[in-house]
């Protein structure tokens, strides 16, 4: 087999066989097919697309290009959650403890944040002493004993995807739905779960800005799950404003604690409950949504989720007193109010813009190896469809340095006001399950 022939085959719009795709992925990972050939092939895929069989073959070849975690030693179905990346997306920190408190194992590897989007592992790292790295034995033992462990991704997961993603990044081939779907699903499958709940974000703060594109991506990822016999459900959700009220690492940790404590009812609470309920169904724990929702709401009310978070923090070496006293989490020395220069209803909040502000404050990484500041970020005092008076506080900036009036007024430019109350947009646009693909 020659890479050259496979490039022609895809360029001309033909379907590659599973063996051909496996050859390309193996040879590229091993370094016997060069970047320039793989780049040409990616560009051919960009224009010609791929069939679901091809996408599934690519996903599995990349998933098996490195370690594939075996969670078989843990009793019960393990359901993983993936978010395509949002701003202030604190859901995993709420969902994982709630699901685990229902007795369902949550053995989860999470990523670090990059650019305007945050990562769960950085949020957990804000807890003094918390170990985001466990040995494989520690990880599995912890899930067996307390049903939950959240750790960072290891470097050996789907190395083919790592190499291919870096190549796509510099050859204008990231923006291809078959390549994105297989990239995401290969890492999820390598992490060893039996099924997946996918939160596909759409809107200003998301990777997929348009709803139809997000739905298309969601459908392909669910179809990949179907083709490898792993129950998968995707929710296409609104990222036209940040989720919840906090953006930043220790701020979002604090936010998760207040939600699990039953103190905050907001879009983040609502989405977390929906995702957790879907996980109960995927795990085969309950037969329908009504029962799943009832059980999850109960675990929120009786604070079983909060208790589970505390157990996990303790087990991973963290200071679990933060659960009762979130002020023990890192605090930024300066707070500056962002003031509304006019009055009106908030029509839109530029999540991408606020994500970038948080990154520039130090909460996020500009480059893969940037050092972040766990304490800084933004606290939103107003959300879409709220009314503000001139002079009222829109948000509070938590920073490591004193900010100028100009800097705080710049943050206000991410808020768009209107004189009439806007219609509220749905939180979930679409749910995709096996029957839809
Ligand atoms: N996220 C991924 O993991 N892969 C892509 O290709 C795009 C976003
Ligand atoms: Ca948030």
Protein architecture, described:
The structure is a single chain. By secondary structure, the chain is of the alpha/beta class. The chain has 3 domains: 3-63, Transferase, Pyrimidine Nucleoside Phosphorylase, Chain C (Transferase, Pyrimidine Nucleoside Phosphorylase, Chain A, domain 3, Up-down Bundle), CATH 1.20.970; 79-325 and 428-436, Pyrimidine Nucleoside Phosphorylase, Chain A, domain 2; 333-418, Alpha-Beta Complex (Aldehyde Oxidoreductase, domain 3), CATH 3.90.1170.30. The chain is built from 16 helices and 13 strands. It has helices at 3-11, 18-30, 35-48, 52-63, 91-100, 120-125, 136-146, 159-169, 177-190, 211-227, 249-260, 267-282, 289-301, 304-315, 351-361, 405-412, and strands at residues 79-83, 106-110, 148-152, 195-202, 232-238, 246-247, 334-339, 344-349, 377-380, 387-388, 393-399, 415-418, 428-432. The strands form 4 sheets. A 4-stranded mixed sheet has the order 1-4-5-13, sandwiched between helices. Strand 4, helix 10 (211-227) and strand 5 form a beta-alpha-beta unit. Helix 5 packs across helix 14 (304-315) and helix 12 packs across helix 13 (289-301). It is globular. The two termini are 33 Å apart.
The computed structural class is alpha/beta
Number of helices: 16
Quaternary state reads: single chain
- Which small-molecule species are bound to the chains here? uracil, calcium ion
Q: Provide the helix percentage.
A: 40-55%
Determine the CATH superfamily of the largest domain. Nucleoside phosphorylase/phosphoribosyltransferase catalytic domain
| Shape annotation | globular
Question: What is the name of the CATH topology of the largest domain?
Answer: Pyrimidine Nucleoside Phosphorylase, Chain A, domain 2
**How many independent structural domains?**
3
Number of DSSP strands? 13
Amount of beta strand: 15-25%
Tell me the CATH architecture of the largest domain. Answer: 3-Layer(aba) Sandwich
- Order of strands side by side in the largest beta sheet? 1-4-5-13
Strand/helix succession: HHHHEHEHHEHHEHEEHHHHEEHEEEHEE
CATH C-level name of the largest domain: Alpha Beta
Biggest pleated-sheet summary: 4 strands, mixed
Mean pLDDT: 96
């Amino acid at each position: 087999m020659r890479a050259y022939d496979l490039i022609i085959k895809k360029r001309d719009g033909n379907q590659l066989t599973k063996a051909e795709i496996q050859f390309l992925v193996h040879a590229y990972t091993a370094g016997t097919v060069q970047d320039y050939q793989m780049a040409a092939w990616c560009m051919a895929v960009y224009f010609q697309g791929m069939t679901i069989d091809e996408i599934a073959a690519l996903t599995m070849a990349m998933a098996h290009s490195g370690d594939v975690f075996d969670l078989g030693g843990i009793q019960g179905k393990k359901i993983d959650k993936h978010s395509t990346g949002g701003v202030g997306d604190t859901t995993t920190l709420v969902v994982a403890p709630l699901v685990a408190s229902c007795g369902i194992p949550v053995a989860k590897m999470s990523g670090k944040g990059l650019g305007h989007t945050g990562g769960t592992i950085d949020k957990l790292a804000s807890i003094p002493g918390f170990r985001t790295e466990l040995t494989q034995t520690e990880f599995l033992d912890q899930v067996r004993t307390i049903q939950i462990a959240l750790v960072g991704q290891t470097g050996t997961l789907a190395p083919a995807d790592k190499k291919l993603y870096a190549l796509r990044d510099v050859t204008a081939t990231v923006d291809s739905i078959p390549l994105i779907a297989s990239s995401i699903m290969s890492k999820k499958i390598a992490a060893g779960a039996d099924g997946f709940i996918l939160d596909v974000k759409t809107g200003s703060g998301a990777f997929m800005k348009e709803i139809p594109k997000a739905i298309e991506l969601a459908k392909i990822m669910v179809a990949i799950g179907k083709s490898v016999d792993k129950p998968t459900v995707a929710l296409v959700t609104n990222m036209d404003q940040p989720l919840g009220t906090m953006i930043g690492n220790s701020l979002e940790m604090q936010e998760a604690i207040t939600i699990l404590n039953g103190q905050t009812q907001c879009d983040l609470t609502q989405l977390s409950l929906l995702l957790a309920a879907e996980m109960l169904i995927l795990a085969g724990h309950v037969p329908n949504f009504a029962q799943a929702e009832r059980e999850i709401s109960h675990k929120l009310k009786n604070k079983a989720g909060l208790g589970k978070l505390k157990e996990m923090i303790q087990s991973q070496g963290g200071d679990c007193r933060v659960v009762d006293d979130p002020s023990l989490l890192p605090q930024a020395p300066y707070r500056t109010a962002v003031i509304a220069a006019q009055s009106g209803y908030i029509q839109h909040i530029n999540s991408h813009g606020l994500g970038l502000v948080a990154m520039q404050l130090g909460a996020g990484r500009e480059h893969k190896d940037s050092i972040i500041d766990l304490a800084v970020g933004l606290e939103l005092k107003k959300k879409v469809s709220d009314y503000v008076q001139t002079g009222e506080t829109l948000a509070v900036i938590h920073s490591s340095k004193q900010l100028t009036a100009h800097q705080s007024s710049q943050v206000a430019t991410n808020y768009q006001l209107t004189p009439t109350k806007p219609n509220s947009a749905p939180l979930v646009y679409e749910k995709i399950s096996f029957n839809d693909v």
